[in-house]
Design goal:
Layout: H1 2-25, H2 28-79, H3 81-107
């Protein structure tokens, strides 16, 4: 009988000890400490990712500006086709006049 009683007391003590350890391990301050550890470990990596993303954004904005500038240059070239046609006509006229002058000087 004494053995069973002793085993029962040992079991109660170990159960109470286990319960106390469980409560202590899951105490809010321990949870906050673990959360702080997690933040301390992951924060530098997150800061690096943010810095990388900002750098990529700046590079992307530069590329976008370059592309938009090139597109506007191409559009303005398309709009200037009228001027190029006018220049072509004037050059043809000048060549024709030069040939006429050369022909008239060759006849003399």
């Amino acid at each position: 009988m004494e053995d069973q009683e002793m085993q029962l007391k040992v079991r109660r003590v170990s159960d109470k000890f286990t319960e106390s350890m469980y409560v202590l391990a899951n105490e809010p301050s321990v949870a906050l400490y673990r959360l702080q550890e997690h933040v301390r470990r992951s924060l530098p990596e997150l800061v690096q990712h943010k810095t990388d993303m900002q750098s990529w954004e700046e590079q992307s904005q530069g590329a976008i500006y370059s592309v938009e500038y090139a597109c506007s240059a191409v559009k303005s070239m398309t709009n200037s086709s009228l001027y190029f046609k006018n220049i072509d006509g004037l050059l043809r006229q000048a060549i024709s006049m030069k040939e006429q002058i050369s022909n008239s000087q060759g006849r003399r």
